[in-house]
Design a protein that fits this description.
The protein is of the alpha/beta class. The protein folds into four domains: about 5-85, DnaA, N-terminal domain (GMP Synthetase, Chain A, domain 3, 2-Layer Sandwich), CATH 3.30.300.180; about 110-275, P-loop containing nucleotide triphosphate hydrolases (Rossmann fold); about 280-350, Helicase, Ruva Protein, domain 3, CATH 1.10.8; about 355-455, Chromosomal Replication Initiator Protein Dnaa, Chain: A, CATH 1.10.1750. It is about 55% helix and about 10% strand. It is built from 21 helices and ten strands. The chain has a five-stranded parallel beta sheet, with helices on both faces. Helix 10 links the parallel strand 6 (about 210-215) and strand 7 (about 245-250). Helix 1 (about 5-20) crosses helix 3 (about 50-70) and helix 14 crosses helix 15 (about 335-350).
């Protein structure tokens, strides 16, 4: 193996090549980098779980980067530390196995909500990188100093992340106790235990978990007694070396009537935002779902689907279900026209009705320009780019035709609107930037932020 100085230099070069944020996200500080005499780069992980997760998410990028930096044919081998692989596994006796298969006694805790997601089925990208990495690290045994809180709008995959964390943790720590509850289940079972004398059993079950997952934290607002019980639960679980993970549709500081004591406990941990999936993630989600259904959908149609349905993964799944039904039951070919029609139907049913005035207001607010600017004759990029986005959004979210959209945005010809629409469509999925004041922002991220504001406006 080469010396540590060489390994540190190559590690820095790889991190710069694939993006330091993504590199740090999927490779923990315990991951060792070595280079053997044949020039193979070895990334040695402390656990099989972390190794598999990194291989799926950046394995290909690491190999491409290594060939570019160190020469053609250079390989990056992701493997698990031999010491971890040789660690003896504790063998259960027949008596222990029999005890383990006995049904657990009733504790008054409501049944857990079934969550089917795993890290294998999780699509990651800019929108959820930090949260996904934190969950993966936690599943592998790297603890957070306080609670881990994952927050974001509905349909952004928070419950999927909790499920993936639960399954990953159970795979790594087979003997540890995991409890997954919604806030509604926590409240209901706590109140029932309080009234029926089952409080000791409730506390034993909840506080005895090595990993406690609680979804929909924002629903606990105003329930002072339950929040006080939850505060004591957080303190106890962490005092005995356990970990608590929350999911919420609001960031903790925005949850109404959340006591300062509770807020301070959440701030002591790690808070990760998950945003709506960007175009690249929606494309990957759609591609995987179509493969699962064995639907033959070409890439241009998948791109149109990822562009056309942007309200959330659930709506994307609904669109694919509808395409599947029309293809298999009605015999319709999966064409661009069918995809556009289904996307339009899904948006009409799921997205709050917006008009061109709403679009103009939100776009102008996002870019910090006056509404009159979009309707002006200005050809400055600070105006033309927001104007193109506004016309694209108007075509997507309203029933207005090309001519009507052009008339609204300064009496422009319908051919100008069509050109703007095609230009935005062509730039999707290409990591295009757009000017926002003195800075530049990613086009898809910008559209996602604007569309989120439209849904909440």
């Amino acid at each position: 193996m080469e010396g540590p100085g060489d390994g540190a230099l190559i590690r820095d070069q790889l991190a710069d090549a694939v993006g330091r944020d993504r590199f740090d996200l999927w490779l923990s500080g315990d991951t060792r980098l070595d280079v053997d005499s044949s020039g193979v780069v070895h990334l040695v992980f402390p656990s099989a779980f972390l190794c598999d997760t990194a291989r799926r998410n950046i394995g290909t990028e690491l190999n491409v980067a290594a060939e570019r930096l160190l020469g053609p044919g250079t390989q990056v081998l992701l493997r698990v530390d031999e010491r971890e692989q040789r660690r003896p596994q504790r063998v259960r006796t027949a008596k222990q196995a029999a005890v383990r298969t006995q049904p657990a006694p009733s504790t008054g805790v409501a049944p857990q909500r079934a969550l089917g997601g795993t890290f294998d089925t999780l699509v990651t990208g800019r929108a959820n990188d930090l949260a996904a990495r934190a969950a993966a690290q936690l599943a592998a045994g790297t603890k957070v100093g306080g609670p881990l809180t994952i927050w974001g709008p509905p349909g952004t995959g928070k419950s999927h992340l909790l499920s993936a964390l639960k399954h990953g943790y159970r795979r790594t720590f087979r003997r540890n106790r995991v409890l997954s509850l919604t806030s509604e289940q926590f409240v209901a079972t706590y109140v029932e235990a309080l009234r029926g004398g089952g409080l000791p059993s409730f506390r034993q079950k909840v506080r005895g978990a090595n990993l406690l997952l609680i979804d929909d934290l924002h629903f606990m607002t105003g329930k002072r007694a339950t929040l006080e019980e939850l505060q004591h639960t957080i303190d106890h679980v962490h005092s005995v070396g356990g970990q608590i993970v929350f999911a919420s549709c609001q960031q903790p500081s925005d949850i109404p009537n959340l006591p300062d004591e509770m807020l301070s406990r959440l701030r002591a941990g790690l808070t990760c935002e998950v945003a709506p999936a960007d175009h690249a993630m929606r494309f990957q989600i759609a591609s995987r779902k179509c493969q699962e259904y064995e639907l033959s959908v070409d890439e241009p149609a998948l791109q149109r689907l990822a562009t056309g349905v942007s309200s959330g993964a659930r709506e994307l799944f609904g669109a694919i279900e509808r395409i599947r039904a029309r293809h298999e039951l009605l015999g319709e070919a999966i064409t661009a026209e069918l995809v556009d029609q289904v996307a339009s139907e899904i948006n009409y049913q799921t997205v709050r009705r917006v008009g061109m005035a709403d679009i103009q207001r939100v776009v102008c607010d996002h870019f910090g320009i006056e509404g009159s600017a979009l309707r002006s004759s200005s050809r400055h990029k600070s105006v033309t780019e927001p104007r193109m986005l506004a016309m694209w959004l108007a075509r997507k979210y309203t029933q207005a035709g090309w001519r009507e959209i052009g008339e609204y945005f300064g009496g422009r010809r319908h051919s100008t609107v069509i050109s703007a629409h095609r230009r935005i469509e062509a730039q999707m999925g290409r990591d295009t930037t757009i000017r926002r004041g003195a800075a530049k922002a990613n086009l898809e991220e910008t559209l996602g932020q604007i569309e989120t504001k439209l849904r909440l406006a």
